Batch of 3 targets.
Target 1
Amino acid sequence: QVQLVESGGGLVQAGGSLRLSCAASGRTFSSLTMGWFRQAPGKEREFVALISWSGGYTYYTDSVKGRFTISRDNAKNTVYLRMNSLKPEDTAVYYCAARPRELVGRDDFGSWGQGTQVTVSS
């Protein structure tokens, strides 16, 4: 089992930026594909981005393409989500998640952090 701890959320004005971090422990970090998800009030949790174990492959949901960047530092066991040009509709609790690198389904993300709140004011 892997433990995940997010940080970096907060309140920001529309157009602003934030960088989320997620520190992992308990399993070899380079054996994991990492992802970010978010859940807005009254809505289901949705996928935001993922990054392969090496960092060589990334994938984003359409609504954040060109604004968000996922990255990782395997030496620090940390994954990041840089969020630029934030919009009020980006307001949500953001969760870090992990899955073994040999698995490929979004439902295979089995380890989750506690979440960090991001609020974008208009």
Target 2
Amino acid sequence: VQLQASGGGLVQAGGSLRLSCAASGGTFSWYGLGWFRQAPGKEREIVAAVSRSGSSTYYMDSVKGRFTISRDNAKDTVYLQMNSLKPEDTAVYYCARGATALVATTTTGYNYWGQGTQVTVSS
């Protein structure tokens, strides 16, 4: 399974970005999916996750109401719409495929990872 993340970039505070993660080489639609981020000197943290069906989602507290995770199983793609971006959202963002169909909120719940895409929010 290969995951290819894209959509990162440089944006001013208050702006928006939409990250995409396309999967290939495996069964995408059977599993939960997640977006993580890692800032320099910090641990990788869960940003958002979605279940196999899309009916269950999870968001870290600091992005609730600003970020939206969604998936298109027909396209083997998961998205992260990020609005009202803040400088503290600056990080490398990673998509990941879960080990089960459920929402997982820790790195141990994922067994395939994309390469990461840089998001930089200027103040």
Target 3
Amino acid sequence: QVQLVESGGGLVQAGDSLRLSCAASGDTFSSYSMGWFRQAPGKEREFVARISWSGANSYYAEAVKGRFTISRDNAKNTVYLQMNSLKPEDTAVYYCAAALPIPGGGYLYNYWGQGTQVTVSS
């Protein structure tokens, strides 16, 4: 079992930056790949970024590539999402999630945080 708590959301203007944090407790944090997802009003939840258990590999949605950076500190059981050059379309509730690989490829996100609101005004 992993418990995840996000923080760092808020109201910012277009072009500003925010850093989200996700603190984990419970099971061995470093065993999990970690992901960030977001859900805007009226839309389905979408993938934002993922980082491998070691932090050596990261992956991004095209919409955020070059603006967002995912990182982790296994000593602090925390994963981060640095968001730069924010746009109004980045407005959403942001969730972190913990994943394990599944046979045949892919990842299963078993554990989710409660989300943190990010609002970007134009």
